[in-house]
Amino acid sequence: xxxxxxxxxxxxxxxxxxxxxxxxxxxxxxxxxxxxxxxxxxxxxxxxxxxxxxxxxxxxxxxxxxxxxxxxxxxxxxxxxxxxxxxxxxxxxxxxxxxxxxxxxxxxxxxxxxxxxxxxxxxxxxxxxxxxxxxxxxxxxxxxxxxxxxxxxxxxxxxxxxxxxxxxxxxxxxxxxxxxxxxxxxxxxxxxxxxxxxxxxxxxxxxxxxxxxxxxxxxxxxxxxxxxxxxxxxxxxxxxxxxxxxxxxxxxxxxxxxxxxxxxxxxxxxxxxxxxxxxxxxxxxxxxxxxxxxxxxxxxxxxxxxxxxx
Length: 310
Prior knowledge:
The structure is a single chain. By secondary structure, this protein is α/β, with parallel strands linked by helices. The chain folds into 2 domains: 16-159, Murein tetrapeptidase LD-carboxypeptidase, N-terminal domain (Rossmann fold); 163-302, 3-Layer(bba) Sandwich (Glucose Oxidase, domain 1), CATH 3.50.30. Helices cover 30% and strands 24% of the residues. It contains 9 helices and 14 strands.
């Protein structure tokens, strides 16, 4: 029997949030916009050394980005670690991270998109609950909605433990209960066969993506299915999967392929919750238990991702 997930302490008003950039280079104005919003919400912000660095398309070298992430977890003043952005490069850091150190001083880690690599590695290597949710630096098309930022901060403070998200449609019927894992579809598929991939057995698998052709979405879902990963899942929840050019034809094909590749598994599947790219992007705590009700088109979380002191 596996040990219970480690839950980080709740984030309190006035606490310091560390900002790291494990992936692609970021624009200063996009970073400053997000830092300002979190400061206005009552938190201190500590932006680590290489967040604005550039090494080709990346925010500094792999070792620099990994050092910032580890410094944030080792800093006693930092009580949560937020990604500045996702973008390519996060997966390159995994062999450079000290998961034992992270587990010794657990902190909420927040990110999505390419940060899916880190979120799932924290689950598999540090046994730590992690948060799939809005990042600090976003361009004008990805600025978090106030309600999604409020949801994230209330979740991290322990103010809310239970909430539910409604999907647009039910693809396959049934009910399921289990931990939520997953994230960006292309990243989850890239983690297959590595020691960092989350265990899908008995889990509710969340999948979303952006900028993909329908045939590529189908190919990735085929790989997930043929690997046996989907057959072990308790259920599947799709966020948005936005086609590369916004084509309605591509969108219809993606909808068809998601239904086809999850058919016959005998598990509930719903599609279109507001999490991930191209949505309000409400935070999902990975590693906590949730209930999938296909008939009601609901994903209901009923366990806080943080430890609240009495």
